[in-house]
Design a protein that fits this description.
- By secondary structure, this protein is an alpha/beta fold.
- The protein has one domain: Ribokinase (UDP-N-acetylmuramoyl-L-alanine:D-glutamate ligase, 3-Layer(aba) Sandwich).
- Helices cover 34% and strands 20% of the residues.
- It is built from eight helices and nine strands.
- The strands form two sheets. It has a six-stranded mixed sheet with strand order 3-2-1-4-5-6. A three-stranded antiparallel sheet has the order 7-8-9, with helices on both faces.
- The longest helix has 17 residues.
- The protein starts with 10 loop residues before the first strand and ends in a 22-residue tail after the last helix.
Length: 273
């Protein structure tokens, strides 16, 4: 590279749902990508109605509109990584998979969003098999939490580290190349994430942060990983730096003080940005 040349800004495409509360989905993805020095392109799969207490409604875009959003962007800008979140139904999954193959999109980071933290179903049950068959083989990394792993496998893992190897083996059998088993819902004293690659396992541990401000943590983590991957880092370093970034945001999350309506016995899940 000559002194007159400069490396382009890492461009990350996020394909996810819209959160009007601003703590998850497209909004947290975009905030994270820009905070880490990338440029975010965003394609919306679904519009949700939600606040700090949960999701009250979901309405998906049509397959035709999703396809149009993607092709319009990809005929203009090359992307260095793709973060995929909420996809809602089988039709949208098929569109995304077809687009990845057509445009040879690199560095797919798949966060398999199945159910919201408040228990709302975000992926139609009959679409899980399509997610597995179409997107798992195209993804460089899949980032399920414990509940998502159990849903994908039809299993009942309890959330202890000794289960990680077997969980990973079962997920690899579904066509995954690399998997990050997230530790947020695990039973361990610390929050331990486990990156499993074909040649080994790498553990990343941070103290647990006592906070209710956990809305959108999975979205933030997968988006941060996508940024570091887009910058050319290895999976191990990308996960390490992304987890560090998330931990720092959680530590300072209590500084956020939104002016909520007064409600008794309500645990607020605030955004962490």
């Amino acid at each position: 590279m000559s002194s007159m040349e400069s490396k382009h800004t890492p461009t990350i495409l996020t394909i996810a749902g819209f959160d009007p509360y601003g703590g998850a989905g497209i909004q947290i993805d975009t905030k994270t990508i820009h905070a880490l020095g990338g440029y975010a392109l965003s394609v919306i799969t679904s519009v949700t109605a939600q606040n700090s207490r949960g999701v009250t409604g979901v309405e998906s875009v049509s397959s035709e509109m999703l396809h149009l959003q993607l092709t319009t962007l990809l005929e203009d800008v090359k992307v260095d990584a793709v973060k995929i979140g909420m996809l809602a139904n089988a039709g949208l999954i098929e569109v995304v998979a077809d687009i990845i193959e057509k445009y040879h999109l690199p560095n797919i980071i798949l966060d398999p969003v199945l159910v919201s933290s408040s228990g709302r179903q975000l992926l139609e049950p009959d679409a899980v098999k399509v997610l597995v068959s179409r997107l798992f083989p195209l993804s460089r990394l899949v980032t399920p939490n414990l509940m998502e792993t159990n849903t994908l496998l039809g299993s009942d893992y309890k959330g202890v580290l000794k289960e990680n190897r077997l969980m990973a083996q079962e997920l690899f059998a579904l066509g995954i190349d690399n998997v990050l088993l997230k530790g947020g819902h695990m039973l361990e004293k610390e929050a331990v994430d486990c990156l499993v690659e074909p040649l080994g396992m790498t553990y990343f541990s941070t103290p647990r942060v006592k906070t209710a401000h956990t809305h959108g943590t999975g979205c933030l983590l997968s988006s941060a990983i996508a940024v570091y991957i887009a910058k050319g880092e290895t999976l191990v370093l990308s996960v390490k730096e992304a987890k560090k970034f998330l931990y720092e945001k959680l530590e300072y999350a209590s500084l956020l003080n939104l002016n909520y309506m007064v409600r008794s016995n309500v645990i607020r899940k605030e955004p962490i940005f």
